[in-house]
Amino acid sequence: MGTTPKPIVYLIQAEDEFAATQFIANLESKIGDAGMAALNVQRLDGRNITLDTLRDTALVLPFFGGRRLVILENPLAFVNSENAQSKFLALLEEVPTSTALVLFERGLLTDPKDYEKGKRHWLERWAEGKKERVYMRQFRLRRGAEMVQYILERAKQLGGAFSRSAAERLAEIVAEDSRLAEMEIQKLLNYVNRERAVEISDVDQLCPYLESVENFALVNALREGDGRKALKVLRQMLNEQDAIFIFFSVVHQFRQILLAKLALEEGQTPAEAVQTLSRMRVSLYPARLAIEQAQKLPLDGLRYLYQQLLELDISIKNGEVDAEVALETLIAKFTIHRIWD
To answer: Which CATH class name applies to 143-206?
Structure first.
């Protein structure tokens, strides 16, 4: 029996960016050790390249056999006409089996309501007709019962367990944020040392987000780019709260602001954006604060910030830096780079 051919083009749509980046990281791990990955993994951004650049990169043969992994973020940034679409699709047909080309699109190409009606973006239509060489996957946000089930299954994968009531409480707290869910699952499993199931009392003790997300003092200082004020606020908060909790609260707050900004960018009024956030289980007052902040901040700056928070989060989980140092690093970056300008 022959082996099933590996996909050549991976069309990844990331409503849930954390889950999508985990999937891509798994692909990268299959390329080999760090030395091999440095030779055979290349990242591109469609906002900064041309079609010729993509062709030159995708058609290169891998070093020492195996496969090359080319990750193209924002793949449609330079596809701005029917002629460009035709050339882009023709290039996708040229990609050799020695290359795995990941097209990483943040968000969904087709609105979910339209998707359910059978409508498809032109790139999705092409992919559906090329199933022998294309792997297409949508990473949609988990909400409600889906998040509860994910928490139960992920805890089992990590060698632990949650009671259903604990999973339901954590799902209420993290809403649809898979990255936050992952951090909390690991933290709670470590807390009980995987010797028993995580119970609802553990979640209430270690994850009191719902009571604290309204504290925007540190977020306000960061938004203002005032490093001295931010450090002063941080010191005051550290007198009463654990650094890990403060860090996660900052992540949670900026996530709400980013969600609010995305809603406003879609043309929603502030009132409509409040309703959008409420459907994501953000209560009324924090939703209004998030929208107020979002109206003052640029989308690119918020995206950059969220990426910085993700990188610091990974460093914390890997034991490379503690949460207090991570917060100080974040404040320093804001003060130096002034990302809101």
So the answer is: mainly alpha
